[in-house]
Specification:
ABC_SsuA_sub-bd, D-Maltodextrin-Binding Protein, domain 2, Sulfonate ABC transporter substrate-binding protein, single chain, five-stranded mixed sheet, alpha/beta, Solute-binding_3/MltF_N
Length: 319
């Protein structure tokens, strides 16, 4: 009798677990966001407004930092992230590799927030003089396209330089010890180098590249959660508008997260573009030009269509 009574109690407990605990676990959802040491997502993370908006829906937010767009989009591709941010070039390489990604929004151009640096006493005085020299860059990052366009503007080709593919921290170390002659880099690494190292800007992206920032989502996640995408874009746009109005507050808030001084951070903050919006035909066309350029240079295996990977916002009332 004792064993029968015990089995009955266990059966009741198991039934309660199945009917209460399991559905609760199934209902829980985590939005996994990849970000980098720059941009509006850093501010959104610091302010916590997205968490406040999603909490009533039973959604928590997990933030994951990456050193660059290529690494972030690889995580997106393998399913470790739902959404993230990257510059112009990483999505092209990711799409060419077959990644299931969608462009969901972009920020306005920010051409002064990426540049090609040389040492202050370097004999290299213009872009044409990069011929034969070693240039450090993060392969597949936004500065990859900047360097391509900069070389073209000087009548050079990719074969005229010696690219050295390194992530930002390693590239800075190589640049400091003189192992490379130039360094293509973006903010806030750019702002930090300008403040901390004896460098000259050989060229920024002005007149060469728009340097858009793109927000991207896994295609399957965006298809399941269109309203989550709408909420996220609205939150990014709202905090971006605040950032544009209050750059000093942004710098003071974000500097400790970046491990940089408020002055360095402010320089990077003021060079960003703010105001996330769905992609316009003009932005799609600009991104297509980048894809076509890389296909022509054989940096990606075949041509691709950017327009096929642009997310379409849901119609009003659609869920």
């Amino acid at each position: 009798m004792g064993n029968t009574s015990l089995r009955r109690r266990l059966a009741v407990v198991l039934a309660l677990w199945v009917t209460v605990i399991v559905p609760a676990a199934a209902a829980a959802e985590t939005l996994r966001i990849g970000y980098q040491k720059y941009g509006t997502l850093v501010v959104l993370k610091a302010r916590g407004t997205l968490e406040q908006q999603l909490a009533p829906l039973g959604v928590t937010v997990q933030w994951v930092e990456f050193p660059g767009g290529p690494q972030l989009l690889e995580a997106l591709n393998v399913g470790s992230l739902d959404v993230g941010v990257a510059g112009e070039t990483p999505p092209v390489f990711a799409q060419a590799a077959g990644a299931d990604l969608l462009y969901i929004a972009h920020e306005p151009p920010a051409p002064t927030s990426e540049a090609i640096l040389v040492h202050r006493d370097s004999p290299i005085r213009d872009l044409a003089q990069l011929r034969g020299h070693k240039v450090a860059l993060n392969k597949g990052s936004n500065v990859h396209y900047l360097l391509v366009r900069a070389l073209e503007s000087a009548g050079l080709t990719w074969r005229d330089i010696q690219p050295v593919y390194l992530p930002p921290a390693d590239a800075r170390a190589a640049f400091e010890r003189g192992a490379v002659d130039a360094w293509a880099i973006w903010d806030p690494y750019l702002a930090a180098a300008q403040a901390q190292l004896p460098v000259r800007v050989l060229a920024d992206a002005t007149g060469l590249a728009d340097n858009h920032q793109f927000y991207l989502a896994r295609g399957d996640w965006a298809a399941r959660h269109p309203q989550r995408v709408v909420t996220l874009i609205a939150a990014i746009r709202e905090v971006g508008e605040w950032s544009a109005r209050e750059p000093q507050q942004v710098a003071d808030q974000v500097a400790p997260l970046l491990g940089l001084s408020p002055a360095i951070t402010l320089n990077a903050v003021q060079r960003q573009g703010y105001g996330a919006q769905p992609l316009s035909p003009e932005v799609v066309a600009a991104q297509q030009r980048i894809a076509d350029s890389f296909a022509a240079l054989k940096l990606i295996p075949k041509p691709l269509s950017v327009a096929q990977r642009v997310w379409t916002p849901p119609a009003d009332g659609e869920h």
